[in-house]
Design goal:
The chain is mainly beta. It has two domains: about 240 residues, Jelly Rolls, CATH 2.60.120; about 180 residues, Exo-inulinase, domain 1 (Jelly Rolls), CATH 2.60.120. It is about 10% helix and about 35% strand. The protein contains three helices and 26 strands. Strands 1, 3, 4, 6, 9, 10, 11 and 13 form an eight-stranded antiparallel β-sheet that branches. A hairpin with a 2-residue loop joins strand 10 and strand 11. The termini are close together.
C-alpha cells in the first residue's frame, strides 16, 4: 500500500480548506455535532457488545454531555476542557486522517485511533508542568505505547506551533501501523500502536488491537479547538512486516551484483574487506521503497548506501544519491562538509548528528525513498527528511546527473573499511 507517498505529498500539496481534499470526506460539517457522540477512555470492545437498548441509552446520555461541553463557532469545534470525548458514530479500520487543532497553555489532549489512546497533544513548554512526562519532546507521539524508548511513544522531532496558531495533523493508520506528520514534519514513522486495553500483558504477547473503532477527540483540561477534520478510508492492510522481502540470506551473495569479491560474509553479515571496496548492489531494481537494516562501524569506518544506482559509475553522482554510512565522530572527519556526515545525502542534504551507537555496536536504520523525498530513521530518531529535488546547492558545485533517477538498484558503496551490514529487508511502495 502506498501510504508513504500520500503522507509526503498530501501535506505539501494542498491548502487547508473547508472543502475536503480529493478522496476525503468531512467528519465535521462546520455547523453542528451531527455524526458524533461521546465516550470516555473506555474499551470499544465492551461498548460494541452492548445490547441494542443499552447502547441506545448510552448514546442518548452522551448527547446530553457533549452538547454541554462542546460548541460550534464560525466553523470551529470548541471544547471547554471538560466532559466526554467527541467520538465518531462511524467506526474506521485503515484510514488517513487530517485535522487542525489549537489549544491553550496548560492543556492536555489527544486523538484516539480506533478508540485507543492516543496521539498526544499537550502544552510543550516548561511552564505547562509536564516536561517530566515527555511534553518537552513535543506533541504527536503515541504516548500510551509504553515506557520511554518504546517505538512511537515520543515524537521524532518537536513540531508544535506557538499557542494561538493552528497545528496541522496528518495521520495514516494501516493495520496497527501509524505514521504521523505534525505541521508537515514527520513525528512518528511506521510505529505500531500498542493495545492499551491489554497493557498489563507483556508487549510481545498483547492481543491485537481492534479492527475498527471510532476517532475520538480527547478533552483533558484546557480549552481546545478543532477544524477541517477529514478522513479517507483505505483498503484493509494485513501483516505489514510480511510485505518486506529479505534481500540477503546471510550465507552468500545470491541476488547481488558488482565486485562481491571485495566483500565477505561474516557471522551472517555482509562486510567490506579492509583495503578493498566498490559498490555491490541488488539484482532487482526499485522505484519507491523502504529498506530496513542493521550496520556496524569500525573506528573511522566509511561506507555508503547506493540509492537507485544504475549499476555503474559513482553512486553519489550517477545514482540518485549515496547516503553516508560513516563514523562521524572520528577525529579524521572533524572538518567535513555537513553534507558528508552519517545519514546525509552525500554532497546534497545534511543529516542530524549525535544518534550513532558506539564503535562495533549494531545500529538500526530505516530509509524511505518516495519520488525525490528521502527519510532516514537511525536508532529510532529522525536524522534526515529531505526532498532532494529542492536542494539549492551542491558540495563543491558538483553536478549530480543521477539525482532524477526514478528507478535503480540498492547497494553498499565500500570505501576500504570493514563496515558490516545484516538483516537487510526491502519493501516496495
Amino acid at each position: 500500500m502506498k501510504f508513504i507517498p500520500s503522507c509526503i505529498l498530501l501535506l505539501n500539496s494542498f491548502a487547508w480548506a473547508v472543502t475536503p481534499p480529493d478522496g476525503f470526506t468531512a467528519l465535521f460539517n462546520g455547523e453542528d455535532l451531527n455524526g458524533w457522540w461521546g465516550l470516555k477512555t473506555e474499551d470499544p470492545e465492551k461498548w460494541l457488545s452492548l445490547s441494542k437498548d443499552k447502547f441506545k441509552a448510552k448514546w442518548k446520555a452522551s448527547q446530553e454531555d457533549i452538547h454541554k461541553h462542546w460548541r460550534v463557532e464560525n466553523g470551529v469545534l470548541i471544547n471547554d476542557g471538560h466532559g466526554l470525548f467527541l467520538s465518531t458514530e462511524k467506526n474506521y479500520g485503515d484510514f488517513e486522517l487530517m485535522l487542525e487543532y489549537k489549544t491553550v497553555p496548560g492543556a492536555d489532549s489527544g486523538i484516539y485511533l480506533r478508540g485507543l489512546p492516543q496521539v498526544q497533544i499537550w502544552d510543550t513548554t516548561e511552564a505547562g508542568g509536564k516536561w517530566k512526562l515527555g511534553a518537552k519532546k513535543g506533541s504527536g507521539g503515541l504516548w500510551n505505547n509504553g515506557r520511554p524508548g518504546t517505538r512511537g511513544r515520543d515524537p521524532l522531532i518537536h513540531a508544535d506551533k506557538p499557542f494561538g496558531e493552528w497545528n496541522h495533523f496528518h495521520i495514516i493508520m494501516t493495520n496497527d501501523i501509524v505514521t504521523i506528520r505534525l505541521n508537515s514534519k514527520l513525528v512518528v514513522h511506521r510505529a505500531p500502536l500498542t493495545n492499551y486495553w491489554d497493557r498489563k500483558t507483556e508487549l510481545s504477547k498483547r492481543k491485537p488491537i481492534i479492527a475498527k473503532g471510532p476517532i475520538q477527540l480527547q478533552t483533558h483540561g484546557g480549552e481546545i479547538s478543532w477544524r477541517n477534520i477529514f478522513i479517507k478510508e483505505l483498503k484493509p492492510s494485513c501483516c505489514d512486516d510480511e510485505e518486506f522481502e529479505s534481500v540477503f540470506n546471510g550465507k552468500n551473495f545470491n541476488g547481488w551484483m558488482g565486485p562481491t569479491e571485495n566483500y565477505q560474509i561474516t557471522e551472517g553479515s555482509i562486510q567490506c574487506i579492509k583495503g578493498k571496496g566498490g559498490t555491490i548492489y541488488t539484482k532487482d531494481k526499485y522505484n519507491d521503497f523502504i529498506v530496513d537494516f542493521e550496520f556496524k562501524l569500525p573506528a573511522g569506518g566509511n561506507n555508503g548506501l547506493a540509492i537507485r544506482y544504475p549499476g555503474k559509475g559513482n553512486p553519489a553522482y550517477n545514482g540518485m544519491c549515496e547516503l553516508q554510512v560513516l563514523d562521524s565522530e572520528h577525529s579524521r572527519y572533524e572538518k567535513l562538509d555537513p553534507r558528508q556526515y552519517h545519514g546525509s545525502a552525500y554532497g546534497i542534504a545534511a543529516a542530524r548528528r549525535g544518534f550513532l551507537k558506539g564503535i562495533d555496536e549494531w545500529n538500526q536504520q530505516e530509509v524511505t525513498v518516495v519520488g525525490s523525498h528521502i527519510i532516514v530513521i537511525l536508532n529510532g530518531s529522525l536524522i534526515l527528511d529531505s526532498d532532494l529535488s529542492k536542494a539549492e546547492s551542491f558540495m563543491a558545485n558538483k553536478k549530480h546527473p543521477g539525482l532524477k533517477n526514478i528507478e535503480g538498484h540498492f547497494g553498499f558503496a565500500g570505501h576500504n573499511d570493514p563496515v558490516a551490514f545484516r538483516n537487510i529487508r526491502i519493501k516496495r511502495l
